[in-house]
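Hi L.,

As promised, Mitochondrial tRNA methylthiotransferase CDK5RAP1:
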Amino acid sequence: MELIRTVKPLFTVLQQCAALRCLQLRHCSNAANRNVSSRQSRTRVDRFKIQLSSGPSLQDFIRGVPVDGSHAADGDASDTQEYLEYLCEDMDLGNSRKVCFETYGCQMNVNDTEIAWSILQRKGYLRTVDINEADVVLLVTCSIREKAEQTIWNRLQQLTAMKRKRLKTHTPMKIGILGCMAERLKTELLEQEKLVDVLAGPDAYRDLPRLLTLADGGHQASNVLLSLEETYADIMPVHHSPQGYSAFVSIMRGCDNMCSYCIVPFTRGRERSRPVSSILEEVRLLSDQGVKEVTLLGQNVNSYRDTSEEQFCGTELTQLSRGFKTIYRTKQGGLRFSDLLDRVSRINPDMRIRFTSPHPKDFPDEVLQLIAERANICNQIHLPAQSGSNQVLNAMRRGYTRDAYLDLVKNIRKIIPEVSLSSDFISGFCGETEEDHQQTLSLIREVGYNVGFLFAYSMRKKTHAYHRLQDDVPAELKRQRLEECISVFREEAAKVNAALIGSTQLVLVEGESKRSFQDLCGRTDGNMRVIFPKENAESNMALISAGDYVLVKILSANSQSLRGRVLSHSSLRGRVKH
């Protein structure tokens, strides 16, 4: 019994340390602010070492030799708590190790990178863009299509070869997979291929310091649990945009739509919205830093519904676009997307506001009217159609028909006459016939989009289509149909853009054109790329820099960009929407 009483405080230390670790993960933003001087740290460690050295040894357990329990029993409880807190705080520190991020996929992954970096930066990690000097390489991944995943597999092979070479001369390099691919392929990544040291799903970034500490000890570490609550509302992302004038702000995570082809609900979980107060705080901070364009992000961004405060939780039912439906029960209460958009747009009238990626079902008139009224909310709407065939739309579980979609397009153009539309289309979905494909081509022609994102269908495990449908369109036919869709899309986009020749567009300057150092480039309110000569700009006015607003006369156009000449500097404040 004496032996048990002696070692009991040590077990208590470990239990309390585990509890403190959980508390620390919940409140990492507060814990990161605590600082302990090096002298105090050494003192606490010395005390702990003394208590360990004077406690029972392994031989005591084996021989059953009585031990004097006075060392532990008489110790100062405050001393125990001090070294306990010190150990729990320091066990996950980065100690100036360098981490390199590689980001693949959508804008949400860019934002996830900024969140993960914010968490690691607080723990003492340094960031590098040079992979050769990195101690940790983290790939922020995408699982939306097979090609995206294959890109990651190829990159992992390259990094593993680099890691083997590093073992001979440097500190071993750790490789981590973050995001959707970590959740979807955890077994293959850890157990079968054994190419990574750390896996962290989209809702587990707070756990990264602990996971990396375990990896340093020679263990594979993973956390891919999905959350019903995690929004990282208390984590202020470290924005690392090379331009500096634009930023992404995540407002919600996950998706409840359960489209039959989509893996997102299974890799990012159910919908949950970030509290409006946290979003407004981040946007104000970005405005103070001189950011000129903010894009609000979410897997279904316009289904935003903040229920974090009791005053928001009324009984009003969510209003959908006319003719649209969902597979889930109508939600009620909460601060809606139109409310958030209203508040965000008021922060800085000279800062553009965009949002992506929306679902067509969540465009009630109040959202459209707000876009039409506010000069700083861009006249650009992404309206993913996916197909022009009712049969395919039904198989996709999109919740609308072709006619309902076209009615929405008409309503949008009625309320926002100068709107620019973009869309997503999938070629070769399960059961798609030639007639279905022709209906998609006719929809593209009828709507007339400025920008499009078109892909061949790639079946994903876990999805409704994987379990219930047959991927029966041959790969070569998918490719052929995709090429036809792209061709028609470009033809129509060229016509839409040609209509802008002779107009004057307000352009937010991004910097030098990638194709010519003699040109500058930027984007219109409708998200169209505009290229204009640098010489013409500099001869007529003060130097133009990235982040400036300028008026550009459009002189020519093609399906992908506009060309023009600068008329003058400008701003959003003097702009009037018609």
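The domain at 90-223 is CATH 3.40.50.12160 (Rossmann fold).

Thanks again for sending the construct details.

K.
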